[in-house]
Every structure is written in C-alpha cells, then in structure tokens.
Write a structure and sequence with these properties.
The chain is of the alpha/beta class and 281 residues long. Helices cover 31% and strands 13% of the residues.
Length: 281
C-alpha cells in the first residue's frame, strides 16, 4: 500500500538534485537560529517557529499579513514549490506545512527525514551564509479554517464520540504521570488527557533515520490503537507542533479526509475550567 499523497514527500537526494531549480524553494523551520547559522541546506531560507510563525501577542498562529511578510522577505512566490525541513524529525517543518496549507499555498512538501537525515549523509552540502532574497510581494490564497480545531470542536468530539481524538504525546504525559516533558516551560494546571482520546505517540510513526514509516505500517499502528479511518480526526499534543506531525501522517500520508490539528493542545485544554479530563491508560 502506498501513501495517499506520495508527492507531499521528497527525498534528500531529490532536494540535492533540485538545489538550483528556480521555482523550488527550500525552507528550514527551526526554534533555535543558532542551528541554522551553524549549517543549513544551501540556499535555504529560515523560519523561526517561536518568533515568526506564532503571533507574539496573542496565543495564535501568525496572521495572514504576517505570513505574507515572511514569505515576501524570503522571496517565495505562490507558484513556487516549497520544501520544508527541520529538527526533531520535522516537528516544526510539519507545523510549517500545516500553516502553508491553512493559507492556501498549493505546492508545499516535506523533506523526508528532515535535518538529521541530511546531516547524516556525507554527500549532502551545507552552507553557513545567509542568502539574500529579492522580495516577492507574496499574497495568501484564502484561509482554510477546516484544518484547525478549537475548543468547541474538541468538546463536541468528547460529547458525541463521532471524531477520533488522537493524543500524540508520550505515554507519561497521556496517563498524567507528568504534565509536560522535563525542562518545558509551557505547561498546564492539570495532567491527563482528553476523554476518549487514543494515545499514539508521534515517534511511533517514524523510522530510525527519521523518515516516515510505510503506509501499511502506519495504518496498522493507528488501526490497532482504535482509530476509525472512516471518522474525522483531531490530533493534539502539548503546544501543537508534535500534533501537526501526526496531522500530516493522517491527512496526507493515510488520506483521512477530515483531520484537524488542535494547536491549543494540552496547554489550553489542561488549563480550561470545567473541561473533563481522564488519567491513566
């Protein structure tokens, strides 16, 4: 069984072969600018998940106007093929992919294996210079709100049980043993999980080299955990980056028709007064 949308992934070799293709734009999505500065794919632009893809005043995604400025500054045009990659097996790149799709960019893909796979291959070049891009005057092509879940939809899913709730955090987070991974500052008042959620930690979807597992392995993984592929799905984690990775797997690789990323995730839900929670497995 092949992926539902195989074109959403490109290999590291494909990227190397297309570094000088004019309409192919490479973008590293990161949280630490020092990582990009230390070495990145030649010609790659950089988008910071913390300071650029998030609204710095509201707990929200970057606005349409802000997104347009970012892509204009990076010289990206609506007609370009955008290849995203990053650390943590493409957590933040997957979030970037989700955001690009929310704002209607037609051709955006992930480099399978992310930054770690590129660095592990001896024939892959690195650059430390910061490219200069001619501004593109990018304009967004609509707004796809259907890719994003908010609290009312999550609570409706709890009440009706007509939607798969997929918790992609670690087992300890899901069961309520811990509220957040060690060292994380964004947290919640309560530990546990959304009632009825299935726990499929995001890391189970990737191979040792960071590439996504085969379609039949992924389908088996979610099916055995109780995910009904005929139903809509909402994925969540702690702050929305790990869940965007699972959103990508369910929607793009397995072809589940209605999948939403709940980017408020546990930092919102675990602080919500009166929201029901469960603990344990």
């Amino acid at each position: 069984m092949s992926y539902a949308n195989p074109d959403v992934l490109v290999s590291t070799n494909w990227v190397k072969e297309n570094l000088k293709t004019p309409n192919v734009r490479i973008v590293e999505v990161n949280v630490d600018p020092k990582v990009y500065d230390a070495g990145h794919i030649p010609g790659a632009a950089s988008l910071n998940w913390v300071t650029q893809l998030q609204d710095q005043t509201n707990r929200d995604i970057v606005s349409a106007a802000g997104f347009e400025r970012l892509l204009s500054d990076a010289g990206i045009k609506p007609s370009d093929t955008v290849i995203l990659y990053g650390d943590n097996n493409n957590w933040f790149a997957a979030y970037g992919y989700w955001l690009f799709k929310i704002y209607g960019h037609q051709d955006v893909r992930l480099m399978n294996g992310g930054r770690a796979k590129w660095l592990a291959e001896d024939d892959k070049p690195l650059a430390t210079d910061k490219p200069n891009f001619a501004p593109s005057h990018y304009k967004v092509n609509g707004f796809n709100a259907g890719l994003r879940a908010k609290i009312p939809e999550v609570l409706e899913a709890v009440a009706t049980k007509r939607t798969n709730l997929v918790d992609v955090r670690s087992v300890d987070e899901f069961t309520g043993k811990i509220i957040a991974p060690p060292g994380m500052t964004e947290t919640a008042q309560r530990a546990g999980h959304v009632p009825g959620a299935r726990n499929i930690p995001w890391a189970q979807t990737v191979n040792q080299d960071g590439t996504f597992k085969a379609a039949d392995e992924l389908r088996d993984l979610y099916g055995k955990a109780g995910v009904d592929f005929a139903k809509p799905a909402i994925a969540y984690c702690r702050i929305g980056e790990r869940s965007s990775h699972t959103w990508f797997v369910l929607r793009e690789l397995l072809g589940v028709k209605d999948v939403k990323n709940y980017d408020g995730s546990w930092t919102e839900y675990g602080n919500l007064i009166g929201a029901p929670i469960e603990k344990g497995a």
